[in-house]
């Protein structure tokens, strides 16, 4: 073995050892005895599987992962907790839905030692570090809409040529879409936003369950344009999909948190995974797979990702959601 090869091997071993030592050995030992954990989350299964494999390689711990929309994560977690039969250790969801669960008292605070590596303004006193940003934009199929003919602004989405050709998650059911509509004034102003929402409803968009099927319908060409997460440009594009997003400069989005159940069946394994999830290795894995992680200088392979200006959406709360859903039902479905 050459000197260079030995040096590289030693550096790799040092890197793995350093990451392992960054976590509390007693916590890891207790976690290994539990052997598994249950997580309800919103992350794409293929991306999460990369994290699962890396974590399992380090600890031997298996993760039972159930992936769905933020709304359904919240509904299932609350339903189990209220029935006194909570099966989950962790939930990974948007900030607004996580705060709903926090208010219900089903989450516990865990101060991970990895929090020190995040900017202070990215750490919530109750929820911990904001690990990822869910950035929402307008995506379109380049085989149907040429880039030169694509919308240039959010308001362009309601031009007549897109009537009946738009797909989006149902704002009367999908929490994050309702939140996006309620916050669009941050991009175009209050007066314009009210007009935009009315005109968007008049476009008669086709509704789907969540952002994932919206992106799939755009990818397949069934619908040429829609509202969904920007990272699908990379996720679906890596599979050959001819999709791109409208460069609007500012983009609304939500933060994503990984939080501990107040009655976690496997608390040590859950805490060990939170520590792993927040470390640099995990953040890099997610970014390379298309996620917008909340660490400076780490970007996903989405074109012009470094130029995106993230505008965090305001929380609505359960009462406001109920009001907005009624409002959107009247506008979009009647």
Attribute tags:
2 domains; 19% strand; 334 residues; D-Maltodextrin-Binding Protein, domain 2; eleven-stranded mixed beta sheet; alpha/beta; disordered N terminus; two-stranded antiparallel sheet
Question: Explain this structure to me?
Answer:
By secondary structure, this protein is an alpha/beta fold. The chain is built from 13 helices and 13 strands. The strands form two sheets. Strands 1, 2, 3, 4, 7, 8, 9, 10, 11, 12 and 13 form an eleven-stranded mixed beta sheet that branches.
User: What CATH architecture label of the largest domain applies?
Assistant: 3-Layer(aba) Sandwich
CATH superfamily of the largest domain: Periplasmic binding protein-like II
Report the total helices. Answer: 13
Radius of gyration: 21 Å
Q: Which class of the largest domain in CATH terms? A: Alpha Beta
Tally of distinct domains: 2
What coarse outline follows from CA principal-axis ratios?
Answer: globular
Q: Indicate the percent of residues in helices.
A: 40-55%
């Amino acid at each position: 073995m050459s000197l260079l090869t030995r040096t590289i091997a030693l550096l790799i071993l040092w890197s793995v050892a350093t990451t392992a030592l960054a976590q509390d050995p007693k916590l890891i030992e207790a976690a290994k005895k539990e052997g598994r954990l249950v997580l309800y989350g919103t992350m794409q299964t293929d991306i999460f599987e990369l994290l699962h494999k890396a974590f399992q390689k380090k600890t031997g711990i298996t993760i039972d992962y159930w992936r769905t929309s933020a709304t359904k994560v919240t509904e299932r977690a609350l339903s189990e907790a209220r029935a006194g039969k909570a099966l989950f250790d962790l939930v990974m969801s948007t900030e607004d839905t996580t705060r709903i669960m926090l208010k219900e008292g089903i989450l516990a605070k865990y101060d991970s030692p990895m929090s020190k590596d995040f900017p202070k303004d990215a750490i919530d006193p109750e929820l911990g570090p904001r690990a990822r940003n869910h950035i929402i934009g307008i995506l379109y199929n380049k085989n149907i809409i040429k880039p030169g003919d694509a919308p240039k602004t959010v308001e362009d989405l309601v031009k007549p040529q897109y009537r009946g050709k738009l797909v989006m998650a149902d704002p009367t059911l999908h929490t994050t879409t309702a939140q996006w509509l309620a916050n669009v004034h941050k991009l175009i102003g209050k007066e314009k936003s009210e007009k935009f929402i009315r005109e968007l409803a008049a476009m008669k968009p086709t509704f789907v369950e969540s952002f994932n099927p919206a992106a799939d319908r755009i990818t397949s060409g069934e619908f040429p344009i829609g509202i969904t997460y920007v990272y699908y440009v990379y996720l679906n594009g890596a599979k050959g999909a001819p999709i791109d997003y409208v460069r609007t400069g500012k983009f609304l989005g939500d933060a994503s948190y990984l939080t501990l159940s107040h009655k976690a069946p496997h608390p040590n394994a859950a805490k060990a995974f939170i520590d792993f999830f927040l470390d640099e290795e995990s953040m890099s894995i997610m970014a390379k797979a298309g996620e917008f992680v909340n660490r400076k200088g780490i970007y996903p392979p989405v074109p012009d990702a470094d130029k995106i200006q993230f505008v965090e959406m305001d929380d609505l709360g359960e009462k406001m959601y109920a009001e907005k859903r009624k409002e959107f039902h009247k506008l979009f479905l009647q």
